[in-house]
């Protein structure tokens, strides 16, 4: 018989939005349960220096998430290492099935599942994933000391990864399909001043090439977007940094989404298309995608859940 747990507020996800929701829901005496998911701490656990979190001129991403988890726990949030695999939103209390077999029922749900890295979708990219192809410089950069590597992309993620990788690599080639970056200017300035980084403009990756035995990357082929000319670049590592997609698998068929799968919320609110279900952080934010805005939305979601439950209680009474 599956174990069933009931809570007033179930928080799904454990990035800045989830942990902040836990802090506020706990302070409202809602005794929330937070289920962490596959990546406790979310994307910030794969980030090194965070320089835009108020109160810290610089803090390591994993340290920030350890602090936020401890804060939520200290306030009274019950934090569980488990993965929600499905959720029934057709009636209240909502019912969530988990990977461990535990069934969670909840009067309100805060979705804070975040986003995850996008891939190019190349057959050769898939082949060499984990064998020279990565989407996480902080996870894998260490393995490329003294090597030449390639970064794909032109936004903040790509530039941050390229800069970070210069700590290890002898050379970083940044391949971007446009002729200018989409990153913040401060990051662009740092990249342009870094002698180890060489941008390759107006190109897109068409193939990762490498050895079979043992499996390993030896280079890439990049195509000029206007002329079609192929450039071959020797490298040992390829880091794909082309952005993120919302982790919406739980709700994409039941909640209203837009902009490529981001959950729609009401204006100036975290309310979704189902009353009692709230969404916060990168799952709903296609515009800002910052830790601090995610935390702010986590706060909003908890306050709105508290108000929703109070209104439900009033109706029942």
Named CATH topology of the largest domain: FAD/NAD(P)-binding domain
Q: Please trace the helix and strand order, writing H or E for each element.
A: EHEEEHEEEEEHEHEHEHEEEEEEEEEH
CATH architecture annotation of the largest domain:
3-Layer(bba) Sandwich
Number of strands: 21
Number of alpha- plus pi-helical segments: 7
Uncertain segments: none
Q: Please tell me how large the radius of gyration is.
A: 22 Å
Mean pLDDT, rounded to whole units? 94
Identify the CATH class of the largest domain. Answer: Alpha Beta
How far is the N terminus from the C terminus? 33 Å
Which percent range fits the helix content? 25-40%
Write the CATH homologous superfamily of the largest domain.
Answer: FAD/NAD(P)-binding domain
- Count of individual domains: 2
Structural class: alpha/beta
Q: Approximately what portion of the residues adopt beta-strand conformation?
A: 25-35%
Q: Mind explaining what this structure looks like?
A:
- This protein has 317 residues and is α/β, with parallel strands linked by helices.
- The chain folds into two domains: 4-116 and 244-316, 3-Layer(bba) Sandwich (FAD/NAD(P)-binding domain), CATH 3.50.50.60; 119-240, FAD/NAD(P)-binding domain (3-Layer(bba) Sandwich).
- It is built from seven helices and 21 strands.
- It has helices at 16-27, 61-75, 123-127, 137-140, 156-165, 185-193, 291-316; strands at 4-12, 33-35, 49-50, 59-60, 78-80, 84-88, 94-98, 103-111, 115-117, 133-134, 148-152, 171-175, 197-200, 203-212, 215-224, 230-234, 237-240, 244-246, 257-258, 262-263, 277-279.
- Strands 1, 2, 5, 6, 7, 8 and 21 form a seven-stranded mixed beta sheet that branches. The chain has a five-stranded parallel beta sheet with strand order 10-17-11-12-13. A three-stranded antiparallel beta sheet has the order 14-15-16.
- Helix 1 (16-27) links the parallel strand 1 (4-12) and strand 2 (33-35).
- Helix 1 packs parallel to helix 2, helix 1 (16-27) runs parallel beside helix 7 (291-316) and helix 5 runs parallel beside helix 6 (185-193).
- It starts with a strand and ends with a helix.
- The mean pLDDT is 94.
């Amino acid at each position: 018989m599956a174990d069933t747990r009931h809570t007033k507020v179930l928080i799904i996800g454990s990035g800045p939005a989830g942990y902040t929701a836990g802090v506020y829901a706990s302070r409202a005496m809602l005794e929330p349960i937070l289920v962490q998911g596959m990546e406790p701490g979310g994307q910030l656990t794969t980030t090194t220096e965070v320089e835009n979190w108020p109160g810290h001129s610089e803090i390591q991403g994993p340290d920030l998430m350890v602090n936020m988890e401890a804060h939520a726990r200290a306030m009274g949030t019950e934090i569980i290492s488990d993965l929600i695999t499905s959720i029934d939103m057709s009636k209240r209390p909502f019912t969530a099935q988990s990977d461990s077999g535990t069934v969670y029922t909840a009067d309100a749900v805060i979705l804070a599942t975040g986003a995850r890295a996008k891939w190019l979708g190349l057959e050769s990219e898939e082949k060499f994933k984990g064998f020279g192809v990565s989407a996480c410089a902080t996870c894998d950069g260490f393995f490329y000391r003294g090597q030449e590597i390639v970064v794909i992309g032109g936004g903040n993620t790509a530039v941050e990864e390229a800069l970070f990788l210069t700590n290890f690599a002898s050379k970083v080639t940044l391949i971007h399909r446009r002729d200018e970056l989409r990153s913040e200017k401060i990051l662009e300035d740092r990249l342009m001043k870094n002698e180890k980084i060489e941008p390759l403009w107006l190109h897109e990756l068409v193939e990762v090439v490498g050895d079979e035995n043992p499996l390993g990357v030896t280079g890439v082929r990049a195509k000029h977007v206007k002329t079609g000319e192929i450039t071959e670049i020797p490298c040992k590592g390829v880091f794909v940094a082309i952005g993120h997609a919302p982790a919406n698998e739980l709700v994409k068929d039941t909640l209203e989404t837009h902009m490529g799968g981001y959950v729609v919320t009401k204006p100036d609110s975290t309310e979704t298309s189902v009353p009692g279900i709230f969404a916060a952080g990168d799952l709903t934010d296609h515009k800002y995608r910052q830790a601090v805005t995610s935390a702010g939305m986590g706060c909003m979601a908890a306050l709105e859940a508290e108000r929703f439950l109070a209104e439900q209680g009033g109706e029942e009474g």
